[in-house]
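re: that chain from earlier
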Amino acid sequence: MPDIRLQFVLGSGLRSRAIAWWGNGYGGLSHCDGILSDGRLLGARSDAVGGQPAGTDIRPANYEKWLKRIVVTFDASPLEYASWEASLRAKIGTPYDTAAIWGFITGRSENTAGQWICSALQINALQHIGRISFPLPMPAHQITPNTLLNIAVAVGGTFEVFDHEAPVRRDPAESVADARELRHNFKTLTVPEAASCNEAHSLGEDVPLPVCGNEGRDTRSGRNQASAVVRQGEDRVERHHEHV
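^ sequence. v structure.
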């Protein structure tokens, strides 16, 4: 009889670390998937990975290298498992809920009906079989992977923490490319009028990600700091190549 299992992970990239820090601070997690009986993973992703496009889909086990992995298990009857998996499969092909992520940043409750972030997708499937109450005090699209992990354990799931994988050694040029992408995002990012001003947050290795500004101000402070990170990274790449 298959159990219902969820996998919570911390990815190794800068974007994953940003999600983890934003959602929990120290010890944060960046993503969660449902584990099917054959070991494949069904979840909502914002990126094309594991041979599948962004959105809700089935991906191979270990489709990414993770720095941390926690698996939560619920004992389930065959009927419960089948209903849980059917709920997830019914959402395959739906887009990723980018609006919900902007809601975290702007401090507003924003989401798009019929689209999902990773944690909301898994909450919905557990609510479908009655393992998590509906409604919750907080809407599903505002619940982070860390919050879902704690809810799942509180309602009877057992958890196992697996050994952290060795950090992935990345070419310094890759980190610079990530930082350049951040700088580009800062150039175009504005905060809607009357949006709350949030404290600056860090991304990865001291890469700042502030989101601040009433009256549609752009994030000049964050853009300047991201540019400084790019310059520092480019210096590291030059030194790296000198010794290769």
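Residues 4 and 81 are 6 Å apart (CA to CA).
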